[in-house]
Design a protein that fits this description.
The chain is of the alpha+beta class. The protein has a four-stranded mixed beta sheet, sandwiched between helices. Helix 1 packs across helix 9, helix 4 packs parallel to helix 9 and helix 5 crosses helix 6.
Length: 265
Amino acid sequence: MSTRYRLFSWEHSYFSGKVRAYLRYKHYFGDLGDGYEDILATPELIQGLLVPATGSNVVPQVLTPDGEWLHDSSEIIDRCEIRHPQQPVIPAPERPRQRLAAYLIELLADEWMLVYGFWERWYYSLEGSTPNQLDFNAQQWGAFINPRGTGSERRAVGQMMFRQNMALDDPGKATQGPYSGLVELGMTEHTMDAWIASHRRIMTILENHFDGHDFVLGGRPSLADFGLLGPLYAHLFRDAVPGLECGSNTRWSPNGLSAPTAPTR
Ligand SMILES: N[C@@H](CCC(=O)N[C@@H](CS)C(=O)NCC(=O)O)C(=O)O
């Protein structure tokens, strides 16, 4: 049995980014013992190890050094906080406003910001969308399906998966996969502009806040920061279209490039 925590994750996964950043912080600044290893959850590992152990095929999942399986990112953090109390990331009950703010921002990131993150990944992967990140997206999915493949092999297997499992060719008819999921989350052609506006409002607030503070609650990270790394890392930073937008003054409109807006500072 390993003396380290084992994190089963994907690099392109929203909730893996949240848990990876948390474990890393606890390892370097807290008391995580021998630390953790980050293991790519390949389809073979998911079917052969994760599903038999937990009944779940989603990532992230964590195996503790004493053999306990944890999953759902919130549960992983809550349980690790109890096991490893040094450098707590959840403010103490004596600080109720900070505690409430941390949980609320985790909720905002997990459930609300998810919709835009999910949308940008798949909308800008549709043929005809401009700008377009289809090749990038296919390659990042291919990297988990066929990690030993060349770049073009990864892209090919990613594209095949998009066609076969995700209805990328005909999103209007999708009964499963991201396009039907987006509708279930409330993202439709009628609500799209409102979701985009909400995303921009949140990003502007964060931009202004992080101009003056290193972390959400001030000088050290809390659950709120790790929650935000869900949308911010694997989607808004790593995905090609929003990643480029983050690094410049460019603002994309849903149907193409719009005029750059004034810099926020
Ligand atoms: N509530 C879960 C959500 C986990 C989740 O949705 N994971 C995504 C990747 S970020 C996944 O594994 N999706 C694959 C699928 O649903 O088949 C958590 O917080 O960990």
